[in-house]
From TrEMBL:
Main location: cytoplasm
GO MF annotation list: guanyl-nucleotide exchange factor activity; zinc ion binding
Gene Ontology CC terms, in alphabetical order: cytoplasm; cytoskeleton
Domain PH as annotated: residue spans: 222-304
This protein's UniProt keywords: Cytoplasm, Cytoskeleton, Metal-binding, Phosphoprotein, Repeat, Zinc, Zinc-finger
Superkingdom classification of source: Eukaryota
GO terms (BP aspect): cytoskeleton organization; filopodium assembly
Domain DH per the UniProt entry, residue ranges: 5-193
Protein name, UniProt field: FGD2 protein
Location of this chain's protein in the cell: Cytoplasm, Cytoskeleton
Pfam families listed in its UniProt record: RhoGEF (PF00621), SOS1_NGEF_PH (PF22697)
Lineage of the organism: Eukaryota, Metazoa, Chordata, Craniata, Vertebrata
Length: 304
């Protein structure tokens, strides 16, 4: 007799989970453990570096090896009298939030491996040595490290398929649909973690261009717009090139630096958005002009 479609998918979930756990074992128990041992002996790189590379891989490995895989195996053994996996996946879903941290750290981890491989030949040799083993299947450490990043989307696809193939009267329908909803939320959670990381990187790049003034650097700020602007001097009817950064809480009025060493701009004036007024002007001589006024000062500016 033909196996029902949903059972095939559940089996595929189990098989990919077994392969995934052995990949996590390789990352945590082989790469991380051995690199850490050599770091402790002071032979390769600082211990901190190894910890930063592997982020929270140990927690992820323990969770899958000691909890999720055994539960799934038990389910598939009892399938004939209890054909369901939805409830187990519901228990899994909240823990997948642990992936946010790993995913967020991934690019940094790969950079660290590259940087320290160049800087410390013994570190590079140890990695190369482990990569030669049969268990690595001719793949690099970076390649293996990508697995956890791809695992949640894989759960999502398998579970979508599973729900689609379930007969309407299946005892697992409600649980499986709820589980899919939960996995979907977690997948969004790790996308949000990536988006947040990108936002912070971009923000940091802007702060570097501004020359890191303590009172400006704040991770909660949001950059809304930036660009060149002409400052109008009413005294001698001329304009000069300036640059604006608009954040959610402040407008920075800057002067581009002539010598491009270090910061790109010098902050001349900072106007808090709170209490800031903007008014368009109908100036025939200077089109597209507007006034920006803060508590201290009013600027007359011309856009392109």
């Amino acid at each position: 007799i033909q196996e029902p479609e949903e059972k095939k998918i559940a089996l595929e979930l189990l098989e990919t989970e077994q392969a995934y756990v052995s990949r996590l074992h390789l990352l945590d128990q082989v790469f991380y453990t051995e690199l850490m041992k050599e770091a402790k002996n002071g032979k390769t790189v600082p211990e901190e570096v190894v910890k930063m590379i592997f982020s929270n891989i140990s927690s992820i490995y323990q969770f899958h090896a000691k909890f999720f895989l055994p539960e799934l195996q038990k389910r598939m053994e009892d399938w004939s009298c209890n054909p369901r996996i939805g409830d187990v996946i519901q228990k899994l879903a909240p823990f997948l939030k642990m992936y946010g941290e790993y995913v967020k750290n991934f690019d940094k981890a790969v950079e660290l491996i590259t940087f320290w491989s160049e800087k410390s030949p013994p570190f590079q040799e140890l990695i190369a040595d482990i990569q030669k083993r049969k268990v690595c299947a001719n793949l690099t450490l970076q390649h293996h490290m990508l697995e956890p990043v791809q695992r949640i989307p894989r759960y999502e696809l398998l579970l979508k398929d599973y729900v689609r193939k379930l007969p309407p009267e299946s005892p697992d329908r409600d649980d499986a649909e709820k589980a899919l909803e939960m996995i979907f939320m977690v997948a969004k959670h790790s996308n949000a973690a990536i988006a947040e990381m990108e936002r912070l990187q971009n923000l940091w790049a802007v702060y570097q261009r501004l020359g890191l003034e303590d009172d400006i650097v704040d991770p909660s700020n949001e950059l809304i717009k930036e660009g060149p602007i002409q400052k109008i001097s009413t005294r001698n009817n001329s304009t000069s090139e300036k640059y604006l950064f608009l954040f959610n809480n402040m407008l920075l009025y800057c002067v581009p630096k002539v010598i491009q060493v270090g910061a790109e701009f010098q902050v001349h004036l900072r106007i808090n958005v709170d209490g800031m007024k903007v008014r368009e002007l109908n100036d025939t001589q200077f089109p597209h002009t507007f006034l920006v006024s803060g508590k201290q000062r009013t600027l007359e500016l011309q856009a392109r």
